[in-house]
Amino acid sequence: MPGPKVGRHRWVIVALLFAATAINYVDRQMIGLLKPTLQAEFGWTETVYADIVFWFQLAYAVGYVAFGNVVDRIGARLGYAIAFIIWTGAHMLHAAAASVAGFAGVRFLLGIGESGNFPAGLKAVTEWFPKRERALATGIFNAGANVGAIITPLVVPALTLAYGWRGAFVITGAVSLIWLVAWLALYRRPRESRRLSAAELAYIESDPADPAARVPWSRLLGRRETWAFAAGKFLTDPIWWMFLFWLPDFLVKRHGLDLKTFGPPLVVIYVVSDLGSIVGGWISSRLIQRGWTINAARKVTMLGCALAVTPIFFAQWVDNLWVAVAIISLATAAHQAWSANLYTLPSDMFPRKAVGSVIGIGGTAGAIGGMIFSLYIGQVLERIGTYSLIFIVAGSVYLIALGIIQLLAPKLDDAARD
């Protein structure tokens, strides 16, 4: 790992965050992978499926802002554990669902639990890393999302064919409980950790001291920087939701794949996405190390990401499967690189005591955007039957989001610390 040779225990923390995020995305993506199977069994229309996704996102919106505040109050260790227990229990309860209302209910509970993943994870990164390494650390643990998305099409079809879709939910949930044991055993705040050297602790705490007092919500909501982050999440999070919940369906409808054959294309897409997450965090961190300001490094990197998404316009009209996979892979990698930098903005602009709350506000905005976009997708597929209009939106919103971020937060460096 880059950085001074002062110890590496902070990267063990990133490994735990990476693993939790992978589990988180296996659990949330499974319904998208099983959409054709569940539609065939239960007779769901496109709008019914969109409604089920909507309930997950509604809960995610509510839970995200709540968990941001909770994590700021009780810390990353306990906050993450609570979130994990809720979402894993909800994931396993999918096996008992037998109606639209049942699926909507367990998806709602899953959304509540899963909403704690990023507020807690980013709080942990803020506690364990100085600013110059946070984008890289965030990119690495955010890459767990893509590993989860890779694992899902490799493992879930086999489990479904062997044990049925209900068994697949139970087995994946039970195995993931190993992470909870490891988290509770290993995670402490840096000053409470016995595994941390004095040199590494000094390196982690090398940034200027933050104000000790918590920042009230009334103050956060009055800052343009809060809304810059929230706008970025509102506009671009829905695109990632679309990939997670509808990409298998796109491959089935546009290229004739099924549960047995869409695994390899999905694996390629999410492997490339994984690289995008890490590279996106590395680029801005590297630029900062070379003397760029945080403001310039983050925004130039995000501009490159926004431009790299635009070829998704043409994915619907490409007949060759692997050319379509290449276009989608570029878009998903660019999204993850964008996300690694976007998630770092609150820690660039706000004191540590406020980071969880700002991330919660932004995450709620992203989930609300996802709810709106999900209903739009359901209507488009029900009435038009193609993804062309959906991909046009997907290719446009990143540049719009970056423009709004620049307008509201023209200088990131300590912008909201006064």
Structure description:
With 418 residues, this protein is mostly helical. The protein has one domain: MFS general substrate transporter like domains (Growth Hormone, Chain: A, Up-down Bundle), CATH 1.20.1250.20. Helices cover 79% and strands 0% of the residues. It contains 16 helices and no strands. Helix 3 packs antiparallel against helix 4, helix 10 runs antiparallel to helix 16 and helix 12 packs antiparallel against helix 16. The longest helix has 56 residues. The radius of gyration is 20 Å and the shape is globular. The model has no long low-confidence stretch (mean pLDDT 89).
List its salient traits.
hexuronate transmembrane transporter activity; MFS; MFS transporter; Growth Hormone, Chain: A; 418 residues; transmembrane helix; mainly alpha
Q: Give the structural class.
A: mainly alpha
> Strand tally, please?
0
Q: What is the terminal-to-terminal distance?
A: 33 Å
Sheet having the most strands: none
What is the residue-mean pLDDT, rounded to a whole number? 89
CATH topology: Growth Hormone, Chain: A
Q: In percent, how much strand structure appears in the residues?
A: under 5%
The helix content, as a percent range, equals over 70%
CATH class descriptor name: Mainly Alpha
Number of domains: 1
Number of helices: 16
Helix-strand pattern: HHHHHHHHHHHHHHHH
**CATH homology superfamily:** MFS general substrate transporter like domains
Short description:
This protein is mostly helical. The protein contains 16 helices and no strands. The two termini are 33 Å apart.
